[in-house]
Design goal:
The structure is a single chain. By secondary structure, the protein is α/β, with parallel strands linked by helices. Helix content is 55%, strand content 6%. The protein is elongated. The strands form two sheets. It has a five-stranded parallel beta sheet with strand order 6-5-7-8-9, sandwiched between helices. It has a four-stranded parallel beta sheet with strand order 3-2-1-4, covered by helices on one side. The protein contains 34 helices and nine strands.
Length: 698
């Protein structure tokens, strides 16, 4: 965010009175009158006339020097004022104004010496105190600079520029309330200072007082519409308010005023990315990088855009360029790790996750990403330990519940019940429920708080466990209210933390109970009768609406019906839809892709898995085989012990490990993986061949 400072005070025009020749005194008064009224050429002519008569006339040398500074001739100005000082070094104004000229020339050290000499002669010279402060600020000596501004204000409380410069320092130190007060005092004195309205807006925006910031920026632009940086900062405030169209308009106005404004290009890219206009966002970042090739944030966000566009190799290159310019950029290490993992380069990804965590140990998002990569790699001990960082990750939707009881660590409780509570989605609940038998074996009385849709299924499957649902009681996880079952709780644990206690090694999976869920046997038999015994029953699910990963995990139904491997055309199979969604839409899809006219995919309208998961479990249990993408159906079939073939994208979820064709979570599961990103055709051909052999129906 640009924070324009206020310029140093203009040159002090104090006059040193010596013993002038009487005629020169009148000429000097006339010259000063012209000078003060802006008739600089007339003033210069008279100053030079005086100096022709008296070459060492100190006041004329000094004032001619200040005039030269006003018209941008600083070399001449410095020479003239030095000559005045050589004639009379006891005049504080001479030293102060020489300091102003040297400061304008960038000679901060000598400028500071000049201001100090002026103050030694006249300590109450407020402008010199302030200008010395601006030099110290430019040298990074902020505490000393602030002290000088405060001294200037003690001498001259109405010195608006000192209030502004003190406010800038206070803001840079994070003392935002004090900075706001300084800017507001300056504006009471000089409300026409457009830049200061902008600075006040910056301070308010840093406090997330966005309405106030917007008002300040708008006032600044009403006074001075051509300030590109203020248009840009107004855009930032509007973007923070999610007013993306207005923010875009501000950035575009800023760029019209200042086409080389790299920060505005970058922020326009952020707005376009937030609007999901990825091509436009990428173009903005690329334009920003042409203007400022070393802007790591632009490389980073261009990488994010390319990642969202599935241009993963380009995304990786962007993150690497960001790291060239900022090697300690933890977020870039993390995002590069995510891309490398998606490209199947897991060892390289693990190294980047590790580096991100080293750089920023409290970076929960990176530690959670590292955990998932470690679990994918089969490093269960490290993975489950780092999995506890999920509570600090934006990818983890479930909040930690603030129960007063301690977290369970696997021990036999001295008193009270063990409360296990649900987290994440239904599929995760089903998967982690596979560890409930391990918890039962510790001998503790257990209360299992689950999604209400899973209560009947879990109650049947774990008869010694008290199965409840907090949501049935109007209880919200994480709220202050306490579920009645919690009053006798001795310890609690989110269900996703159970693997850290019971699955720290691969052999621990082999000792697990399987299957661990039990469907309603009567309902299961009714489904078998309903669907008929003349053909093999194969359940099918092909689509998920998951916003983040659904597109990669879903498979087009048309691909299952088309050559060269028309899976749905295999004889002797009754295809049963296990796909959730609108029944009419599902029937239209099924009819469109029916390859055997008298045997389309059956859409059973009595089963709504969102409304009745127990009935859905009975339907799944009735299948001879389930073929599904990665969704809750896969977990349910595996937990019920039904043979299930899982179709996975190239960079599969962590729980399915690397390269394996089986799953330690579900012994009846077989995995079919994309050999290359997006290659569902090879997966379907492999399933077609395997199904033909398994059912002897090729």
């Amino acid at each position: 965010m640009n924070r324009p400072g206020y310029p140093s005070a203009t040159a002090h025009k104090g006059i040193a009175r010596s013993e002038p020749v009487p005629i020169l005194s009148g000429m000097l008064k006339n010259a000063i009158k012209h000078h003060q009224q802006g008739r600089l050429a007339d003033a210069e002519r008279i100053y030079r006339q005086i100096l022709a008569i008296e070459p060492r006339h100190a006041d004329s040398l000094h004032l001619l020097g200040t005039l030269a500074h006003q018209v941008g001739r600083d070399d001449v100005a410095a020479e003239l004022i030095r000559a005045a000082i050589a004639t009379n070094d006891r005049q504080p104004a001479y030293h102060s104004n020489l300091g102003t000229i040297l400061q304008a020339q960038g000679d901060l050290v000598e400028a500071a010496d000049c201001y100090r000499r002026a103050l030694a002669l006249k300590p109450d010279l407020a402008e010199a105190q302030m200008n010395l402060g601006t030099v110290l600020e430019a040298q990074g000596r902020l505490e000393e600079a602030a002290s000088r501004f405060e001294r200037a204000l003690a001498l001259k409380p109405d010195l608006a520029e000192a209030h502004v410069n003190l406010g800038n320092i206070l803001q840079s130190q994070g003392r935002l309330d004090e900075a706001v007060a300084s800017f507001e005092r300056a504006l009471l004195l000089k409300p026409e200072m457009a830049e200061v309205h902008g600075n006040l807006g910056n301070a308010l925006q840093a406090q997330m007082k966005l309405d106030g910031a917007v008002a300040c920026y708008e006032q600044a632009l009403a006074l001075k519409p051509e300030m590109a940086e203020v248009h840009g900062n107004l855009g930032n405030a509007l973007q923070a308010q999610k007013k993306l169209d207005d923010a875009v308009a501000c950035y575009e106005r800023a760029l019209a005023l200042k086409p080389d404004y790299a920060e505005a290009c970058y922020n326009l890219g952020n707005a376009r990315q937030a609007q999901d206009k990825l091509s436009e966002a990428a173009a903005c970042y690329e334009r920003a990088l042409k203007l400022k090739p070393h802007l790591p944030e632009a490389h980073y966000n261009l990488g994010n855009t390319r990642q969202a566009q599935d241009r993963l190799d380009e995304a990786a290159a962007c993150f690497e360029r960001a790291l060239v310019h900022r090697p300690e950029y933890a977020e870039a290490h993390y995002n590069l790790a995510c891309v490398l993992q998606a490209l199947g380069q897991l060892n390289e990804a693990l190294a980047r996750y590790r580096r991100a965590v080293e750089l920023q140990p409290d970076y929960g998002q990176a530690r959670f990403g590292q955990a998932l990569a470690q679990l994918l790699h089969g490093d269960f001990e490290s993975g489950w330990r780092n999995y506890e960082a999920r509570w600090q990750s934006i990818d983890h939707d479930t909040p930690m519940r603030p129960y007063p009881q301690p977290l369970w660590t696997g021990e036999r409780l001295a008193h009270g019940r063990l409360l296990l509570w649900a987290e994440q989605g239904v599929g995760d609940e089903i998967m982690f429920a596979g560890l409930v038998p391990d918890a039962i074996r510790t001998g503790n009385p257990i209360t299992l708080d689950c999604d209400p849709r899973l209560k009947p299924l879990f109650a049947r499957s774990f008869p010694t466990v008290e199965v409840v649902s907090a949501r049935d009681q109007g209880h919200v996880a994480g709220a202050d209210s306490v579920h009645p079952a919690e009053t006798e709780v001795g310890a609690h644990l989110p269900i996703g933390s159970l693997p850290g206690l019971f699955r720290a090694t691969e052999p621990a999976f082999a000792a697990a109970t399987s299957p661990y869920l039990k469907a309603d046997a009567a309902e299961r038999n009714r489904f078998r009768t309903r669907y008929g015994e003349d053909r093999r029953l194969v359940g099918l699910a092909w689509h998920t609406r998951n916003q983040r990963t659904g597109r990669k995990r879903s498979i087009p139904l048309s691909l299952l019906a088309s050559e060269p491997a028309p899976l749905l055309a295999l004889p002797g199979i009754r295809w049963i839809s296990l796909q959730y969604g609108d029944f009419d839409s599902l029937e239209q899809q099924a009819a469109a892709h029916a390859t055997i006219p008298d045997a389309p995919i059956l859409i059973d309208r009595i089963v709504d898995q969102f409304a009745d998961m127990d009935l859905f479990a009975a339907q799944v249990a009735a299948m001879d085989l389930v073929i599904t993408i990665d969704n809750s159906t896969a977990h349910l079939a595996g937990a019920l012990g039904i043979p299930v073939w899982l179709l996975l994208p190239f960079a599969a979820d962590w729980r399915w490990l690397e390269t394996r064709q089986d799953s330690p979570w579900y012994p009846t599961m077989r995995l079919f993986r994309q050999p290359h990103p997006g290659d569902w055709r090879s997966v379907v051909e492999s399933v077609h061949s395997s199904l033909g052999r398994a059912f002897n129906c090729a």
